[in-house]
TrEMBL record:
Domain of life of the source: Eukaryota
Protein name listed in UniProt: Thioredoxin domain
Keyword Cytoplasm annotated: no
InterPro entries listed in its UniProt record: Thioredoxin-like_sf, Thioredoxin_CS, Thioredoxin_domain, Thioredoxin_H-type-like
Matches recorded under SUPFAM superfamilies: Thioredoxin-like
Length: 114
């Protein structure tokens, strides 16, 4: 995991997803999972904002999953709209934000860091 603080971690395979998720859960840090799609306009809009948040918040782990690339992961997590942000702590879902809502995203992260 070293060297990945402050970055958006793109998961391109089920193995990578499982590995990152397991390490993230063990770290006991807040995890923000961005379920995205290449064809989704709002997803493209929010990506640089998310990257910026990741830089500013190295104590939060940001994982990114393309729903077309990892369909089964999106299905497992009941993702129906893009972007969907799922907030996790130690393997448990603590919150969810659906849509490219910059302010809500930031407020939700701050809420769970307290």
């Amino acid at each position: 995991m070293a060297g990945e603080e402050g970055t958006l971690i793109m998961c391109h395979s089920i193995d990578a997803w499982n590995e990152h998720l397991q390490k993230a859960n063990e770290s006991k840090k807040l995890i923000v999972v961005d379920f995205t799609a290449s064809w989704c306009g709002p997803c493209r809009f929010i990506t640089p904002i998310l990257a910026d948040l990741a830089k500013k918040m190295p104590h939060v782990i940001f994982l990114k999953v393309d729903v077309d690339e990892l369909k089964s992961v999106a299905e497992d997590w009941a993702v129906e709209a893009m972007p969907t942000f799922v907030f996790l702590k130690e393997g448990k879902i603590v919150d969810k934000v659906v849509g490219a809502k910059k302010d809500e995203l930031q407020l939700t992260i701050e809420k769970h860091l307290k």
